[in-house]
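Here is my example:
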Amino acid sequence: MTGSRHRPRRAAALRRRTLLAAGAGLALLLGLLLYLPPPAQGHRAPAAARCAAGPSLAPPCGAWWGAYVPTGPDGLVASVTALEQRIGRRLDLVYTYHDMGSGTDGQLLDPAEQRLGTDHLLMLSWESDVWSDTAPGGSTPLGWARIAAGDYDASVIDPQAERVKAYGRTVLIAFDQEMDSRTPVDGTPAQFVAAYRHVVDRFRQLGVTNVRWVWTVTGYLPHTQLFSEMYPGDSYVDWIAFDQYNYYGCKGNPDWLSFAQTELPSYTWIRTHISATKPLMLAEFSTAVDHAHPDAQQQWYQQVPQVLERQLPGVRAVVQWDSSVPGPDCDLSLDTGPALSGFTGAGHSPYLNQPLPGGS
């Protein structure tokens, strides 16, 4: 079922990242010194027409408010609805994950997603793996070289492209998100670029015009050389995304980082070295718990709207990771405590309430 999948390969990547995160706090804080935020500007709610999203799906005012929501026993739609009832508003964007297998996990835009797509934006993470509980590490990579060579066009790429085309509404697709954590197992940076371009080219050749392509990295600053080597070019990318968390206490990470400290260094590097104009997305974000200061989670989320508006103006979508990652003290979900209260309050900011595009 969409959303219920544990995405074994994704979990492995998160395990690697939480180990790396213990040493990342200093790099993040140093990155802040490279950035001077612009002067604070008062928010003026513009007319709805002026803030309507254009072809890229990026809102010219504010940002979309979204989440990855794990599927419960009653299905993905019920799980998303339950979260929306708890936060007192509809999510703008729902994020789901797929492999490239022949089973239901490999079916882009399954019935639950299509139902949600009637009044939500959809973003699909499409990973070049076949997930299996019996495979080493939980999945088998197809390999970027073989994807670039067209070996999976007939069996995987083309059928899913036709499904997306038939769906009609515009969707966001991230091919192999966090690819910087997937090399060298899946291939070289050059092979990733070739695979990414091949997938996009196949969709275009088949006349699929209702996809906006998202290039997603971890945001982990020691990987910046990989970021540069793995960027497929502006003509192949509609959005740039990164996934940064406040991993305080998770796997022994000693540094509590505010929302600004968590996101600004990666934002600044991407804006300086990859693109100064592409819309940006926090494709996964969240904070761990400070058991000594339980209200810190609430305060962390309360900072989000103001930081987005004043210091991260290029970020046009923010997507909560409403789950956990492997390891003690690594629960990053909203649950029902201070995190949920803070997320709820932030989601009612005018900056995070923009008109959804018609026909999305």
In short: The CA atoms of residues 141 and 185 lie 8 Å apart. Residues 19-24+56-352 form a domain with the TIM Barrel fold (CATH 3.20.20.80).
